[in-house]
Amino acid sequence: MLELKVELGERSYPIYIGAGCLAMAECFASHIKGRKVMIVTNETVSPLYEAQLRKSLAGFEVDCVVLPDGEAYKNWDSLSQIFDALLESAHSRQTTIVALGGGVVGDMAGFAAASYQRGVDFLQVPTTVLSQVDSSVGGKTAINHPLGKNMIGAFYQPKAVVIDTLSLQTLPEREVSAGIAEIIKYGLIRDVSFFEWLEENVERLVDLDQEALVYAIETSCACKAEVVEADELEGGVRAHLNLGHTFGHAIEAFCGYGRWLHGEAVSAGMMMAAELSYLRGDLTKSEVERIEKLLVRAKLPVKGPVDMQPDDYHRLMKLDKKVLDGRVRFVLLKTIGQAVVTDQYLPADLDSVLRQAASLPS
Amino acid sequence: MLELKVELGERSYPIYIGAGCLAMAECFASHIKGRKVMIVTNETVSPLYEAQLRKSLAGFEVDCVVLPDGEAYKNWDSLSQIFDALLESAHSRQTTIVALGGGVVGDMAGFAAASYQRGVDFLQVPTTVLSQVDSSVGGKTAINHPLGKNMIGAFYQPKAVVIDTLSLQTLPEREVSAGIAEIIKYGLIRDVSFFEWLEENVERLVDLDQEALVYAIETSCACKAEVVEADELEGGVRAHLNLGHTFGHAIEAFCGYGRWLHGEAVSAGMMMAAELSYLRGDLTKSEVERIEKLLVRAKLPVKGPVDMQPDDYHRLMKLDKKVLDGRVRFVLLKTIGQAVVTDQYLPADLDSVLRQAASLPS
Q: What is the pLDDT of residue A135?
């Protein structure tokens, strides 16, 4: 088992990574201050891993709330179920919330922890590739609003994160690929040698080779930790983590959350960012092709939904959090391994990218 | 106009206090970073002060959401109206939310600011005595849950607070008194000489003498600022600010929020805390009588609702945030001007206090 420390002053916390972590009680007990624990999970993950987690929490009073599964349920109604469960079982400020599941469970349990009685302790047990490399570092929690994704939330750090790579064996292939999209992102924005490692090894990740998974997840978490340590509240460099996300969020909003997985939308979005970076004169054509090839090998989409038109992107991107007083800014690439945030691009180039994503003649 | 600084490192902010502040554009402009502002107010305050505030915000793009008035509306539905308004008018992370109204408006607008896009800027214009001396310092924001008051919220500091004592002239007498309850609280928990000043001057506050108001509000805010500066996240001494609140919250929950004003419930609660402190052997009988006399002169209740029984208190207090793993702790008084947090009291003494509050024979 590896231990990676996220250094955020008095909000620092460890990430435990390894095959079989979930069964190690010591990963949990030292991070729980009271007697009561509330597990938040969903109806898919609960039958697979709740019993194992409860064993690791022996000695605590454990309650559990099981939410419906899916991004479509990342809303106030589900959040409200967590608050109801906490209050009905009289959980005090001393309680600890443990998120067991993917990004949706983590985001909701985290926001519930941030706002229940103005903040209680929070542990994360991410069970998808995406949540292991993304939400395990950074403290972003949120729910969706009908008018936009992640619009209501908080920056709130967990006390510890426990990543069990064995839990990925029950994950649908499509979700494995969606998680790899975020892993590729770290190579693209800050680490060309990791990108090259991925060009050598991406099939091992798709096939759930445990050694490759531990390496890629650790590298991704360490990369994200560096960025978040430098910029906890997303004032500067942290925005780089949103490569592909402005386009991606528009795709998810268009599809009504659920038809496209987050990582799939980000994959198409990264491809669009790469194309726009090329038109801006930064990326070379060959770099764009290397990115496309790697995404395809990871079984990821490189275009948007066929029924989504350029106007749909424009309309939905206006609601993105990175809109600065009306003007859409993008995270683009200077080269593979180096990102930049900018609103300096030609509207005609953006149109061309959107037409290509929609498979329209340019 | 006075300026009081709340010192919280990079979260420090000024409180402007004076007659006519609301008309001073300079109190606002330097604290607004973007072009857009969302005023959050209610249907009672809007017709009285919204136009004046808009004048002070000339030059900004100003939207406004008007909520129903009352503690009964401090819930998710109202919060949701704020999010809807922000998203429908495409407010970005650069927006500033301005709360214009009492504690309910401030708590909701503050929590909306804390959680909209994971945090946007927030200015407070409190228009009641209670909110001027209470919510203007401390960064507590929240909404109620059917099972408990202020159960969902955040610690979130405003960028500035603008207190216009003239705005109290439109406040119902009952609400003026309710606010004075919190002013008296500051004397009780840490400042015996302020308590003595109140024994000399309480009628001037009831009569809205502007000079007395500015002095009492400034003294209260400064007192609360000292406490909050020492303990921003309520780990220790800050709990003293909850004198009377454990009993008071039970009263408010019992009455369904609205029948009793918060300050009225706190007044009865402080009297109960004083009685329990006396039975514990700390306060003298004569101190208890001085407290009762001052509260009565401020036109405040010194007993609980006639229809509320000791069992109702027990049941509802179990849900209080100060319950530490099941045991109810109270803020009590060692003497006038000195508070203590403790769970060391005889159950029989608590029963006796609750029977007295319910006007039952002891």
A: 87
Q: What is the mean pLDDT of residues A216-245?
A: 88
Q: Per the CB < 8 Å rule, is A115 touching B153?
A: yes
Rounded percentage of chain A residues whose pLDDT exceeds 70: 96
Q: Which residue of chain A comes nearest to B114, CA vs CA?
A: A154
Q: Which residues of A touch B118 (CB under 8 A)?
A: 140-142, 150, 153-155, 234
| pLDDT band at residue A230 using 50, 70 and 90 as cut-offs | confident
Contact, B268 vs B259, CB < 8 A? no
Contact of B151 with chain A, judged by CB distance below 8 Å, is answered with yes
Question: B323–A233: do the CB atoms touch at under 8 Å?
Answer: no
Amino acid present at B330: F
* CATH class (in words) of the domain with range B173-357: mainly alpha
C-alpha A254/C-alpha A265 separation (Å) is: 11
| A173-357 matches A2-170 in CATH topology | no
Residue B81 above 60 pLDDT?
A: yes
pLDDT at B301: 97
In sequence order, what are the residues at sequence separation of 6 or more whose Cβ sits closer than 8 angstroms to the Cβ of residue A211?
none
DSSP H helical ranges for B209-284: 210-230, 245-255, 262-279
Is A118 designated active site?
A: yes
pLDDT of residue B253: 86
**Model confidence band, residue A149 (pLDDT cutoffs 50, 70, 90):** confident
pLDDT tier at B322, thresholds 50, 70, 90: low
Assigned CATH class of A2-170 = alpha beta
pLDDT, one tens digit per residue, over A310-334 is 999 999 998 765 565 567 899 999 9
Mutation to test the A interface, candidates B152, B155, B156, B316, most A Cβ within 10 Å = B152
Cβ atoms of A148 and A319 closer than 8 Å = yes
Interface of B with A in 82-141 (CB under 8 A): 83-84, 87-88, 90, 92-94, 111, 114-119, 140-141
Q: Which fold has domain B2-169?
A: Rossmann fold (3.40.50)
pTM, entire model? 0.87
What is the DSSP code (8-state) at residue A157?
A: -
Count Cβ neighbours within 10 Å for each residue of B112-132 and write b for 16 or more, e otherwise: bbbbbbbbbbbbbbbbbbbbb
Domain boundaries, chain B: 2-169, 173-357
Helix-, strand-, coil-residue percentages of chain B, each rounded to 5: 50, 20, 30
